[in-house]
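Task: complex structure prediction.
Instruction: return structure tokens for all chains below.
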Amino acid sequence: MAIIVFAETSENQLKKSAFEAVGFASGMATDAGPVIAVCIGPVSNAEALGNSGANEIVTVEYNGEFQAENYAEILAQICKNNNAETAVISNSYSGKSIAGRLAVKLGASLVTNVISMPDTSNGFRIRRSVFSGKAFGWVKVENSKKVLAITPNSFEIPNTGNTASISSFQADLSQVPNHSKIVSVNKVSGKIPLTEAEIVISGGRGMKGPENWGMLEELADVLGGATACSKPVSDMHWRPHSEHVGQTGITIKPNLYIAVGISGAIQHLAGVSSSKVIVAINKDPEAPFFKAADYGIVGDAFEVLPKVIAAAKALKA
Ligand SMILES: Cc1cc2nc3c(=O)[nH]c(=O)nc-3n(C[C@H](O)[C@H](O)[C@H](O)COP(=O)(O)OP(=O)(O)OC[C@H]3O[C@@H](n4cnc5c(N)ncnc54)[C@H](O)[C@@H]3O)c2cc1C
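Output:
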């Protein structure tokens, strides 16, 4: 039986999460069947999904803005047409808003925050993170139909060398109720999206004011990363809310998270503690962040950052 994967796109390009989801599905596929990746709306590099393990790629003509109701209906139609019992979606903001709706349409069980490949040695068990990443739990799914929402940056992207066939699908959206309407869309463009970034440079109240963010942006530019911030920083409008990470903000899992002038409150750590390597820069040696960090620099950010930027530039050169 086929596995349907929602391959998320942004600005006509596949997102990293699309490759992760396809790679995850191809890891399951020996038991579960061919992997069919679905791209909704214009996309210029759909064929690249073959190399991550897709057997088939289905492109769906769709011209409007993202609407979870429409996307869930499109995916449900493709699942039904292919008798697919498993759908894989990234646990991104868009993915989360589709996953529940899709599960209802398919009569499927939904598992969000998935962080492991399933264990099928005795039924179907899968691991998910819980309590904002502070713990994990095993879920046993007894329903043959499943929607699995996988945590971004948790799975390697395979390099299979496959070439996938590409076909198109015309969805019928006439029965989708118009409960909600997109009124306006503000897109951040020209920057690495925070959830996709391998390196994140983040600032807290210790940066003293928005006028000092130039140093963090410069370090992010040199390292090819994105910038983030603590909640008070976005609450005070020093930085946009789209950069706020933590329990009430975005959850990220970059390879490198550099926290500058951030105390390391538990609510902040909830969104960043799964980062592979954490570096904390703080003038207070007792700052809680040092307990969560792999490397710590005790010092004034305004003295330390110029040295870190200079070292990063030298390394890049
Ligand atoms: C329900 C709830 C949800 C929350 N959700 C979130 C969330 O999602 N994300 C989040 O971030 N917070 C969240 N918070 C707030 C959280 O509890 C902390 O208050 C917040 O993270 C603190 O932000 P901060 O570290 O930037 O500021 P502060 O706590 O003020 O810390 C500033 C740090 O900068 C250091 N510093 C000062 N000057 C310098 C300098 N010159 N050089 C180097 N270091 C310096 C200080 O030593 C200090 O450690 C939440 C709180 C609640 C109650």
